[in-house]
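User: Watch each token:
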Amino acid sequence: MTQDVDGFELTDVSFEGKQYPVYRAGSGPGVIVIHEVPGITPPVAAFARRVVERGFTVLMPSLFGTVGKPATTPYVMSSMMRACVSKEFHCFASGEPSPITTWLRALARQAHEELGGPGVGVVGMCLTGEFGLAMMVDESVAAPVLSQPATPFPVGKTRQASVGLSDSDLEAVRRRGAEGCQVLGLRFTADPFVRPARFDALRNLLGDNFIAVEIDSSPGNEYGFTKMTHSVLTDALVDEPGHPTREALDRVLTFFDERLKA
């Protein structure tokens, strides 16, 4: 059952026989906000509103979970289990993107065609964090943001360094990076779900066009982050000037300004 999100209009969007509800608000260039586990929680919706206030049209598909329901440990675990067994999400596969990214690429193309500009922005978070990279294969995506990209889940050294793309998609992403398409990545340094090897792989893939925002969460850090602090733009956000999570949020919004408001 879908629910209202204050300030957003709900539309069911279909591509290639697959339909998902999409929440839309704002005006200006398009930004696709892809929620994290367990779904579109109040902090995810609050982030989307910040993007709208910045002068963008936000399209926020609901891929799983109950819209508007706050995150609890049981809810997170049940939503994660459903995503892991779904055919649309490859949570462990290191050599191919999740099938849902095909639908998301179509959404990006439609948004770009309608809204114009250099392209659209994408924010993926946690389980969907790598989706922006997979969507970058399509020329319509001009500003991909990978916030705590946790998939493929880092089980073993190979998956810790994997970005979850096929060889052909890797080459397409490398080419787009060489052409100047930048990618912004966010993570906490001690996050066990986003190991340093993953950001190292992104640096190797994209060179200087990978912009890493890494927030110190090592033991004894100034802000009291723990090793389990994870969601940079939502649950862990402290909306105070000078706080590193607020600076990360500001960097994302500036990135969209730079890349999409030509």
About this structure: The chain is about 35% helix and 20% strand. Strands lie at 9-15, 18-26, 30-34, 57-61, 120-125, 141-147, 183-188, 210-215. The CA atoms of residues 45 and 222 lie 28 Å apart.
